[in-house]
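Retro notes (design track)

What went well: tokenization of the new backbones is finally stable.
What didn't: we kept losing track of which sequence belonged to which structure.
Fix going forward: every design gets posted as structure first, then sequence, in one message. First example under the new rule, 147 residues:
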């Protein structure tokens, strides 16, 4: 006899939370191809999608102290993945911006992760892919509603 689907909100939330963590951990293996460690890759991602951004705001977004972020930023700058630019409104302040090389590196990493997941999804039945498509739409709606 098969297990009925458990629809209790707490149970669903727990299972989705666990699945999300396991999915990200498995796909993170694809990030090795970027040549960056996880903290640098994460900081670059914030700069690409939220930039231009100040070092303080980047440190806050990454939940690290400014001295730690300074070292990460220096490494990204050395690899020519980001640049520092003076803030137009405050000459004392600097904004971090991703270079084309930084954006390309991040896009290539995303492609590797998406391709790895797509290869696995391709092995599913059409019925399961339809179900997964609907679940992903619903989950996106749930995520948008979280404050």
């Amino acid at each position: 006899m098969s297990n009925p689907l458990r629809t209790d909100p707490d149970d669903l939330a727990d299972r989705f939370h666990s699945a999300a963590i396991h999915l990200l951990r498995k796909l993170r293996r694809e990030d090795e191809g970027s040549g960056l460690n996880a903290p640098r890759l994460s900081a670059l991602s914030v700069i690409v999608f939220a930039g231009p951004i100040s070092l303080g705001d980047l440190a806050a977004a990454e939940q690290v102290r400014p001295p730690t972020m300074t070292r990460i930023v220096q490494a990204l700058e050395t690899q020519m993945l980001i640049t520092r630019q003076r803030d137009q409104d405050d000459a004392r302040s600097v904004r971090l911006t991703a270079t084309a090389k930084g954006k390309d590196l991040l896009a290539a990493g995303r492609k590797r992760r998406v391709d790895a997941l797509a290869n696995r999804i391709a092995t599913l039945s059409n019925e399961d892919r339809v179900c997964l498509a609907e679940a992903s739409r619903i989950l996106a709606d749930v995520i948008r509603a979280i404050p």
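Added context from the reviewer: The chain has a mean pLDDT of 91.
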